[in-house]
Specification:
This protein is of the alpha/beta class and about 425 residues long. It is about 35% helix and about 25% strand. The longest helix is centred in the C-terminal third of the chain and has 21 residues. The N and C termini lie far apart (about 55 Å).
Length: about 425
């Protein structure tokens, strides 16, 4: 080992790990110039040490976490195992041993980020997580540094590539949910068990991290109101299109009346909005600040190479600090702000309702919405089934609270003339 190398270890060498190892090898000389010393990968923790890993000597592999802590020449540990446990415990142990950590783990950072950052501060080391949100898109660093002078009032994002790929397919080819999911699984964009993506859990982790940084608040993924995409049908996209909209799984955080509103839900977005044009596996994050106005970050939100770009940016940053002997800056203090419950969230709504095809039905529904102070913006009677004597109504509304919407829907469902209340979706803007 060159005496002055910065010693690095990795926890995990799967998809992203392989990308990091390949980039470390390819960029070795450039990185040494940036840092002023070379990086040396000293240990790689995996479950199965019998399986060869491209670019890694067998002697570097270990399945014992203690081997990492036992090597005093390791100064930076890159955590790419994923999952909550034992990743959280390993990160904490590494920080407590006085080493810096770079992680791509959104679940650990969303659930335990504040506590782990406190451990890092107590031990005078850094915990960096650029890759945890938006893969290769720089967003953690811009929020922590470049936009810090702003009072950020809104974060609006498409931060799950799997669902964006599926929704783009449904929108462009008129396919139904099950077909879009099967196609995403065939191409490896969706896991065999897609729950974390399609139910919005993955996006809620990332939104919690973004809101924490943007608004300087402690917010847990449980504070994010979630609605998945599993109930969306091909005709929702057809009706949205007729109204001039497309549908995206939108992660939204806003400061409203001195509190935070955070949600992940399928949302109608006007087709001329920049986020409506973010298609396929791409991710995009829009930030609104009082000084900067609206800025949008867009790019590949996953994949070994884009994620390695973010991981290695953090590694270079911390290695430069090590070489320069710089101490980590103090973290920005969190504020105590209330998190508004979903009933207080205000939105416009799209409502698809199947009704008996007879006079007076629309008046009855309009009366119920009016009773909850929800005013109708437009009505489409879009399809009729002559045999069943039913019709489908698509109603869009002006802004109303989630509580008013739910109260109105309960009354609408109880009407004799209503066959089914189909999807009810938020509309952006
Ligand atoms: N995939 C992406 O595009 C992407 C993008 C952004 C962020 N991320 C995040 O990056 C992290 C890694 O994702 P990935 O897709 O690379 O995961 P992955 O392919 O499943 O790789 C996980 C690696 O960790 C090792 N590992 C897991 N549990 C372990 C344990 N208990 N002890 C020792 N080794 C263990 C595995 O060892 P074996 O190889 O022996 O099984 C494997 O090498 C996750 O936090 C993920 O959310 C991923």
């Amino acid at each position: 080992m060159p005496l002055d190398a910065v010693g690095v270890a990795m926890l995990g060498a799967g998809n992203v790990g392989a990308g990091v190892i390949a980039a470390l090898r390819a960029g070795h000389e450039r990185y040494a110039v940036h840092i002023g010393r070379p990086l040396l990968l000293r240990r790689v923790l995996v479950r199965d040490t019998a399986r060869a890993r491209d670019g890694v000597e067998a002697s570097v592999l270990t399945s014992h976490f203690e081997d990492i802590l036992a090597d005093p020449a390791i100064e930076v540990v890159i955590e790419l195992m994923g999952g909550e446990h034992p990743a959280r415990e390993y990160i904490e142990a590494v920080l407590a041993s006085g080493r810096h950590v770079v992680t791509a783990n959104k679940e650990v950072m969303a659930k335990h980020g504040a506590a782990l950052l406190a451990v890092a501060a107590a031990h005078n080391v850094r915990l960096l997580y650029e890759a945890a949100v938006g893969g290769g898109i720089p967003i953690i660093s811009p929020l922590s540094r470049d936009l810090l002078a702003n009072d950020v009032t809104a974060v609006t994002a498409i931060i799950n590539g799997t669902t964006n790929y599926m929704l783009t397919g449904m929108s462009q080819t008129g396919t139904d949910y099950a077909v879009a999911l099967a196609e995403a699984q065939r191409l490896g964009y969706a896991e065999p068990d897609p729950t974390a993506d399609v139910e919005g859990t993955d996006a809620s982790y990332k939104l919690a991290i973004l809101c924490g940084l943007a608004f300087h608040v402690a917010i847990s993924p449980d504070d994010v109101a979630k609605q998945g995409i599993t109930r969306l049908a091909a005709r929702d996209f057809k009706y949205a299109d007729a109204l001039g909209y497309t549908i995206k799984l939108l992660a939204t955080g806003r400061l409203v009346d001195g509190g935070v509103v955070a949600s992940v839900q399928p949302t109608l977005i006007a087709k001329d909005e920049p986020l409506a044009k973010v298609d396929g596996v791409l991710n995009a994050i829009q930030i609104e600040g009082d000084l900067v106005g609206r800025v949008q970050f867009q790019g590949r939100g996953a994949g070994p190479a884009p994620t390695a770009s973010a991981v290695l940016a953090d590694v270079l940053d911390v290695a430069r600090d090590i070489v320069a002997g710089r101490r980590p800056a103090e973290a920005v203090e969190h504020r105590k702000l209330p998190i508004h419950p979903p009933g207080m969230h205000r939105s416009r709504y799209y409502m698809r309702v199947t009704v008996q095809d007879q006079p007076g039905v629309l008046a009855a529904i309009a009366g119920i919405l009016g009773g909850q102070a929800i005013s109708i913006a437009s009505v489409l009677q879009v399809e009729t089934d002559d045999d069943a004597r039913t019709a489908e109504l698509v109603i869009t509304t002006h802004h109303a609270t989630g509580a008013a919407r739910d109260a109105a829907l309960a009354e609408i469902r109880a009407l004799d003339v209503v066959v089914e209340v189909g999807n009810v979706l938020a509309m952006a803007g």
